[in-house]
Amino acid sequence: MERAEERKGGGAGDKARLTVAAAAVLCALASFLVYAPTLDYGFINWDDPKYVYNNPLIRSMDAGFFISILTRPYFGNWHPLTMLSYALDYRFWGLNPTGYHLTNIVFHGLNTALVLVLAVRLVRASGARWTGSNEVLAGVVAAVFFGLHPVHVESVAWVSERKDVLSAFFFILSLLAYLKYAADPLKRRYAAALVFFILALMSKPMAVTLPVVLLVIDFYPLRRDFSVRAVVEKLPFFALSAGASALTMWAQKGALAREGVLTLGARVATAVRAAGFYLYKMALPFDLAPYYPHPVNIDFFTPEYIGAAVFLAAVTVFCFVTVKRHRGLLSGWLYYLVTLLPVLGLIQVGGQAAADRYTYIPSIGVAVLLGAGVAALAGRLSARGFAALGTALSLILAASLSYGTLRQAAIWKDSETLWTYEIGEFPKTHVAYNNRGLARQDRGEMRGALEDFSKAISLAPELAELHNNRGAAFHLVGDYASAVKDYNTAISLAPAYKGYHYNRGLSLQKLGNLPAAIDDYTAELRIDPANIDAYLHRGLALRSLGRADLALEDFTSAVR
């Protein structure tokens, strides 16, 4: 299956390659310009503190840093390449958010260009008798859809989703290398596909589906026979995928334990709904939100869930029924379902029912199908009509998607803007009130912060974190008695959680109840023996009680 430009001869092939390259650069530039306003945005108080501005790990690229990112999970994930990218950003930019946003939008621009190249090569590999203009149009439409779609704002405008753009970059490169290998099975091309897959896994484990995607591509457009060789050559990919899946389960075991509250039936219902939900949002990208909460009651036997199940079943049946005439439909549909499988919620991690960021890699299949469909439609026209229709459709798609992306990206400007928007979409989401309260607290708007924390508690009184956060706000305004009450509740709900005893100790110390404060610091040190502040404040309390000998021991422990 040699590429079309190679069959045409050197001159024609060079011209075709230049045309594809020029179109890819223009699409990448368009995506960069649309996301350029995010260069003025700040960090968000949702994961960004842990990944970036409160993360001491990224501030020193010494041997300990590399050992840590390779051997330990961070924040429930094993993604050493993503952590390395943050460390490199810190080395060049410090804590200036502009640099981190720049890295995200540069990688998204590169991914946009790669999607165009991937679409062109998939169309050529299919053996369709299209002109070079048809192929480029298919690639442009696919790239425009992918690069400018509002559903990808979360992956690009949110610094903490660096793992999406980074993993997709290597994911697509692996597919491109495999397409070259399938056309001419050289060992270096196979090795390139394997190495790029490893890098994708080291950026985000969602890439584990790539081996199955390779089988889907074998089915169509490559039309390769499922021989022993075709299966054996995928075994290293599947082995890596299994290893990455095991690493992910190990890294997220804490999150699974905290969030595993849904029944199996509820998780299946959520997964079915999510698969339809993402297609709906790709078709009609309105009312997008950073956080889609689970409904209070998840009942599969409701119109929403049954409708999603019927829709998915109908599309699947249609693709199989028409497979002899339109293999591409089944291939694209299988790609979408396979790549979405790890994040559908069958294994629950987190409290969200869905997330826009989960569409980043799965949407590539939709983009390629859309590009091929538009090119096929335009190809039925005369040369003049083809040029006019292709240009018009591309510009309309680009303009409408760009407008939606600019509007959606604006909500990621800062934490308060983001969570105020979320509250407008889902006014009963405790996450939004809690995070907006933290943002207001950082800005010194304590009255608004306390109101938000109280609202969050009213929505989810069983969550210890919310009581702890309101307690900290009461402490900052000097209402230490109210702070202690909130800390009492937090500790009763999560007695072994780091920080709660220490926080209550601070408020008790301010109230003059030094013995109780010392008890709390002692309890905190049993939970977190490396808490230097707990040693310091217990030492100060002991010194105030005249226990200089014990105070000296605590000060010495803090120094050590």
Number of strands: 2
Termini distance? 66 Å
**Alpha carbon gyration radius:** 27 Å
Strand content: under 5%
Helicity level, as a percent range? over 70%
- Arithmetic mean of pLDDT: 91
Oligomeric nature of the chains: single chain
Series of H and E elements: HHHHHHHHHHHHHHHEHHEHHHHHHHHHHH
Q: Provide a count of the helices.
A: 28
What's the arrangement of strands in the largest beta sheet? 1-2
Descriptive key words:
two-stranded antiparallel ribbon, mainly alpha, disordered N terminus, about 550 residues, 2 strands
Task: Give a short synopsis of this structure.
By secondary structure, the chain is mostly helical. It has helices spanning 4-8, 10-35, 48-53, 63-71, 80-93, 97-125, 132-148, 153-157, 162-183, 187-201, 210-219, 228-232, 235-251, 253-259, 264-283, 303-321, 327-340, 363-378, 383-410, 415-425, 430-442, 446-459, 464-476, 480-493, 500-510, 514-527, 532-544, 548-559; strands at 292-293, 352-354. Mean pLDDT is 91; it is low at 1-9 and 256-260.
